[in-house]
Design brief:
alpha/beta, 5 helices, 3-stranded mixed sheet, 8 strands, about 270 residues
């Protein structure tokens, strides 16, 4: 009786197929990773838009932006605590005691609450109460003198410290939109600084979660500078509510100019 003819793959054919599959996977993986990162970047920008809407609602109710840091009696309250009701977090704000410092024992449960709106999905670190964003103090990159005194570099931004107990003239009230003579579409409001340490303002309830960008290009430094885990740049919220992706190749002069609200620098690229 004649046995039926059976077909089968040879070892060489199997190895060729495996090699082809490996090449296809190698080619597809970067595309998959790029698509995932594009989604994370879109979520990061959505976070900033939500913050922009919350800050705009606060400004509408108070005729001023929230103070970036209220240092009265060394309590160091954050702009984030002020906008909580406009982020649908009124119940969380009710748990926060403004009569005590932000890091007082009575405020720890609230301050360590994790809020997705303050966390960039591309960030790699995590801790309770984390933020990957910070308010814009200003910049010394266009020639202003570093410092918090009125007229100095760290008083030139948008979300500024008030009631600082230091010698010299310091701000007692937050800025109004009318103070943005450089234009709200040309001035940063909130910036990325992903994965900076908790002790460097990396918690949303900490009034020190604002910073000045003084060290050159975007993504040049992680320590209280514009920095992200996105490839080639970082996201920023402007005072008019728009969100931009800032390229790491953006000129430092332009970055510095857009960190100031009324210094009159040319910010055109």
């Amino acid at each position: 009786m004649v046995q039926p003819y059976r077909t089968a793959f040879t070892l060489i054919e199997v190895l060729v197929v495996i090699a082809i599959v490996g090449v296809v996977a190698a080619l597809a993986l970067p595309a998959v990773q790029a698509a995932r990162e594009a989604g994370r970047r879109m979520q990061c920008q959505s976070n900033l838009r939500q913050m922009g809407l919350a800050i705009a609602a606060f400004e509408s109710a108070n005729r001023r932006l929230p103070p970036g840091r209220d240092a009265a009696q060394r309590r160091q309250h954050s702009w984030c605590t002020g906008v909580l009701p406009y982020l649908e977090q009124a119940a969380l704000q009710d748990r926060y005691d403004y009569n005590q410092p932000w890091d007082a024992a009575a405020n720890q449960a609230a301050a360590k609450t994790n809020l997705a709106v303050f966390c960039c999905p591309s960030a790699t670190e995590s801790w309770d109460g984390k933020t990957d964003y910070g308010g814009n103090y200003g910049s010394a990159l266009t020639g202003l003198t570093p410092g918090f005194r009125i007229g100095f570099a760290w008083d030139a931004g948008a979300l500024l410290p008030v009631h600082i107990t230091m010698p010299g003239p310091h701000r007692s009230a937050a800025v109004a939109l009318g103070d943005f003579t450089d234009g709200t579409s040309q001035t940063f409001l909130v910036l990325e600084d992903a994965d900076r340490a908790a002790k460097e303002g990396g918690m949303w309830a900490n009034g020190h979660n604002c910073f000045a960008h003084d060290k050159g290009p975007v993504n040049n430094s992680q320590s209280k500078e514009i920095f992200s885990r996105h490839p080639s740049g970082a996201c920023a919220l402007l005072a008019d509510g728009s969100v931009r992706f800032l390229s790491a190749t953006m000129e430092s002069r332009v970055v510095g100019a857009m960190c100031t609200r009324a210094a009159g620098e040319a910010a055109a690229q």
